[in-house]
Specification:
Blueprint: E1 6-9, H1 15-27, E2 32-33, H2 45-55, E3 58-63, H3 71-79, E4 83-89, H4 98-104, E5 110-112, H5 120-123, H6 160-163, H7 172-175, H8 179-189, H9 224-240, H10 246-266, H11 283-301
Parallel strand pairs: 1-2, 1-3, 3-4, 4-5
Helix pairs in contact: 10-11
């Protein structure tokens, strides 16, 4: 990752204002990480945010009527582990929600107006530097990992059960051989999903792309960085569904561990406790599988 220094948190509704502030900061010699500009193609949103936070030593959050209502902004503040600088606009009086004030009450808030932009580095109490050039990022396909034959596998076959769960979906079957329509379906309906196995591995039938069954032998151990990323993603999901209390969150976590143990115990050759991908799975089927595993676990291990 490039040498980013300042993570800029904001509401997407304030894009024009943020672009102006980021330009002023980078004119002062500091490289900013800001979404969506610095999110690389193919990287999940949550992972990109965590990478941006890890890369920066300073966290700037723009306080506006939009950002104080943004769950994403609150999540970013919650996960910020660096110096936090809230930026407020002089002409606007905004009262922070209690949950946001919890994180920002002790931070030094900076009030700026348009006339202050040339001196924003001084306002942020940063050392002056020469400006940095921000190159325009060209759209390039991701480089394959060392030693891998194929990085991404895409099968252009519709998941009919999934299509039933969304309104007016763009399907591969409607695109025929039109490349642009196929890309639109892959992007808008299937969220650019792809697989990483399913062609050259053992027990893959000819002309059948994708691995239909995942066994315990296919699992990989987590590293420290993976654990941290997954922990933050899980914490974000809990907050989004208003599961903030420690006891409630712990209960959900124990239930999931129980379900995972049951799955690896009784389904070691055909695991069920995982999301098979938007091209092959749907939310109702996943929930049904998890509930069945949980029921077995409660009966077998907890009486």
């Amino acid at each position: 990752m490039e040498n980013y220094e300042i993570f800029v948190s904001h509401s997407s509704k304030d894009r024009q204002m943020v672009d102006t502030i980021v330009a002023a900061i980078e004119d002062g010699g500091y490289k900013c990480w800001v979404s969506p500009r610095d999110i690389q193609a193919g990287i999940p949103y949550a992972r990109a945010i965590m990478q941006g936070l890890d890369a920066c030593s300073i966290f700037v959050v723009l306080i506006t009527e939009n950002s104080i209502k943004s769950e994403d902004v609150l999540n970013e503040i919650d996960n910020a582990h660096n110096q936090i600088i809230p930026i407020r606009l002089k002409e606007r009086e905004i009262t922070l929600p209690r949950e946001m004030n919890y994180y920002l009450s002790r931070a030094q808030h900076v009030f700026i107006g348009r006339e202050d932009l040339p001196d924003i580095i001084d306002k942020l109490y940063l050392e002056k530097r020469t400006s940095v050039a921000v190159p325009v990022q060209e759209s390039k396909p991701p480089k394959p990992k060392t030693g891998s034959v194929i990085e991404q596998i895409r099968e252009l076959i519709d998941n009919k059960e999934y299509l039933k769960t969304i309104q007016n979906p763009k399907a591969y079957s409607d695109a025929a051989d039109d490349v642009q329509q196929l890309y639109a379906a892959w992007t808008e309906t299937y969220h650019q999903s792809y697989d990483t196995v399913g062609i050259f591995e053992d027990k893959i039938e000819p002309y059948h792309i994708g691995k239909s069954k995942i066994s315990i032998d296919d699992l990989k151990e987590f590293g420290k960085e993976d654990i941290r990323t997954k922990y933050n993603e899980f914490a974000t999901i809990l907050r989004q569904h208003n599961i903030a209390g420690h006891e409630n969150a712990f209960d959900k976590l124990v239930n999931l561990f129980l379900t995972k143990i049951v799955d690896e115990t009784i389904n070691s050759k055909d695991l069920q406790f995982y999301w098979k991908g938007i091209a092959f799975d749907d939310y109702f089927s996943l929930q049904d599988r998890i509930q069945k595993l949980y029921k077995i676990g409660m009966e077998k291990f907890l009486g």
